[in-house]
Amino acid sequence: MDILKSLGHPEEIFNLFKFKMGGCRAVMPKLDYSMTESLRTCYLYLNQTSRSFAAVIQALDGELRHAVCIFYLVLRALDTVEDDMTIPLDKKVPMLNDFHTFLYQDEWCFTESQEKDRQVLEDFPTISLEFRNLAQEYRDVISDICHRMGVGMAEFLEKKVGSMKEWDQYCHYVAGLVGIGLSRLFSASQLEDPEVGRDTELANSMGLFLQKTNIIRDYLEDTQEGRAFWPREAWSQFAGRLEDLAQPEKLESALSCLNLLVTDALHHVPDVIAYLSRLRNQSVFNFCAIPQVMAIATLSTCYNNPMVFQGVVKIRKGQAVTLMMEATNMSAVQTIIAQYSQEILHKVSLTDPSREKTLHILAVIREKSALSQSSLRSRTHHLSPMYLSAAMVLAALSWQYLSTTLSVLNTALVR
């Protein structure tokens, strides 16, 4: 059965079945039918524009859910301006620098974008209205982060990412600030301790780990569309031009560059573990942990993988569902991190130029995860062959139905 092959390993297929049969309730959206029409519209835009965060945002507790939804949409609108190559620089730079001021302009919108997410700019008055309906402590955070991010984006419009330090700086502007802003929102909601919002170093690392993973994974798509986010300091050691890494004859050099960048990204994992260890609210923990375990699974898939330079690299559907269902407590997250670190370790080549650095950071992660091999083995479920076979068949038959779940949820939000 081709569908079984596409879903992945037996344990993942079983988890798809379990997810369909009710396991999704722990991480899927909590629908609120009492929302205003403008707020329902905001959630509609959230589900239309977010590939990965919509479900976990809608599963957040209380008023934090709305604050994070609006925060996401404001930054999505800002990011849409940055990404739109049809906007001339003399117009784009001041837009980015001043974008935070549009939050307090009732009628401001932008109707000239050609980007796929342009509706968040065209209907920005709906988003800014809901922004102004938030409590002051949330508005202050969102406005501040929007301002700082816009200035940073404008700075990098006219220069390439050169050094590894500039890579960190760029990722700080576009993702680290998101981590800092979210952490301040968590604390402002009183669902988390004030220290979570104050420790900007750990919050920044949370964002950098996700952003670097995306940049590494999206090499081919970005280079084909004329975007360059891999730092020159890294790729210039292996090729004359960034796009040359996609040439078949450059594969060995390309993999060396790829592994160097994966190793750099892995340096944020100890901070990720420290950050997640501080969280106390279950919905906040799920919101933060799920993208992080998805990221380390993605890095493990990317490491030393020629497909990064030839096509699309992504984790399996069953793998993603398994991660969503399991990453709900710190012990499970540490186990997942240790597992994927071990997978990377087994792929490290004797001749890779970054070998020693890779082995070192993996050892640090293993120490931080503080898991024994017996803990790793205990993660495997012991199921009878007959039960597992039945679960595989049922999961395969129900997958198409499961795939419509988010669409139904999206429809319900606008009823």
Automatic annotation (TrEMBL):
It is a multi-pass membrane protein. One of its GO terms (biological process) is farnesyl diphosphate metabolic process. The keyword Nucleotide-binding does not apply. InterPro entries: Isoprenoid_synthase_dom_sf (IPR008949), Squ/phyt_synthse (IPR002060), Squal_synth-like (IPR006449), Squalene/phytoene_synthase_CS (IPR019845), Trans_IPPS_euk-type (IPR044844), Trans_IPPS_HH (IPR033904). Its EC number is 2.5.1.21. GO terms for cellular component: endoplasmic reticulum membrane. GO terms for molecular function: D-glucose transmembrane transporter activity; metal ion binding; squalene synthase [NAD(P)H] activity. It is found in: Endoplasmic reticulum membrane. Pathway: Terpene metabolism; lanosterol biosynthesis; lanosterol from farnesyl diphosphate: step 1/3. The keyword Lipid biosynthesis applies. Gene3D superfamilies: Farnesyl Diphosphate Synthase. Transmembrane segments: none annotated. It comes from the Eukaryota. Keywords: Cholesterol metabolism, Endoplasmic reticulum, Lipid biosynthesis, Lipid metabolism, Magnesium, Membrane, Metal-binding, NAD, NADP, Steroid metabolism, Sterol metabolism, Transferase, Transmembrane, Transmembrane helix. It catalyses: 2 (2E,6E)-farnesyl diphosphate + NADPH + H(+) = squalene + 2 diphosphate + NADP(+); 2 (2E,6E)-farnesyl diphosphate + NADH + H(+) = squalene + 2 diphosphate + NAD(+); presqualene diphosphate + NADH + H(+) = squalene + diphosphate + NAD(+); presqualene diphosphate + NADPH + H(+) = squalene + diphosphate + NADP(+). Its cofactor is Mg(2+). PROSITE patterns: SQUALEN_PHYTOEN_SYN_1 (PS01044), SQUALEN_PHYTOEN_SYN_2 (PS01045). Belongs to the phytoene/squalene synthase family. Catalyzes the condensation of 2 farnesyl pyrophosphate (FPP) moieties to form squalene. Proceeds in two distinct steps. In the first half-reaction, two molecules of FPP react to form the stable presqualene diphosphate intermediate (PSQPP), with concomitant release of a proton and a molecule of inorganic diphosphate. In the second half-reaction, PSQPP undergoes heterolysis, isomerization, and reduction with NADPH or NADH to form squalene. It is the first committed enzyme of the sterol biosynthesis pathway. This is Squalene synthase. It comes from Oreochromis niloticus. The lineage of its organism: Eukaryota, Metazoa, Chordata, Craniata, Vertebrata. The gene is FDFT1.
